[in-house]
Amino acid sequence: QVQLVESGGGLVQPGGSLRLSCATSGFTFSSYSMRWYRQGPGQERELVAYINFAGSSTSYADSVKGRFTISRDNAKNTVYLQMNSLKLEDTAMYYCNARVVISGAGTEYWGRGTQVTVSS
User: Fold this and answer.
1) Rounded to whole angstroms, how far apart are CA atoms 10 and 118?
2) Would you list the DSSP string of 24-77?
3) What is the CA radius of gyration of the chain?
4) Angle at CA 67, nearest 5°, toward 37 and 7?
5) Could you say which of 31, 43, 79, 90 has the lowest number of CB atoms within 10 Å?
6) Contact at 8 Å (CB) between 99 and 28?
7) How far apart are CA 41 and CA 69, in angstroms?
8) What is the 8-class DSSP label of residue 109?
């Protein structure tokens, strides 16, 4: 059974930090690229950060560049999102996503999300 379980969200003041984790099981984690998405109130879901299967390539949304860092530990089947200098507009539900394309066929899995609220 495939599982992606996010944790680490919570309430934080502007300028603070949080570290999100996404623990996975039920699939070959080291073969999948991983992404963090977020969806704020009344907003579309947006891609925040990407990391390739090996952890050797990452990319970020412009809105979080220089503040967020995505990383992964293939031995622990876990992906992380370190979030620093948090802003009010970072308030959202954060979801992790696993994706692989094999012979042109794509497979992806989603977690249920963890809430991040930035408020003074």
Assistant:
1) 8
2) EESS-GGGSEEEEEEE-TT---EEEEEE-TTSS-EEE-TTTTTTEEEEEETTTT
3) 14
4) 45
5) 43
6) no
7) 23
8) E
